[in-house]
Amino acid sequence: MPTTSSILSSKSGGALTELFKQAKNKNTHIIVERIVADIDDIVKKVRFPDWQYTSQGERLVQKELRRSLLKYTPHLDQELFDRAYAYIRQYY
Q: How far separated are the first and last CA of the chain, in Å rounded?
């Protein structure tokens, strides 16, 4: 029987995957599943209850998200970062 956290993780990963697939184009070679897995893993490690309501929590998650994205793209797309962070802030 699936647990609440596995359902949330599945929904979160699926939505993040769609977000990155939308940002991908034929000139951008992004391994979507790997990016999403990295982001999901890192956010789960650094978050804490109500992290969205503290400047320390927001900075920590933004820093780790930026670090994850830069591993895969040499130039960070600010719009993609903003959309991914907004999604994480809402659903994690």
A: 22
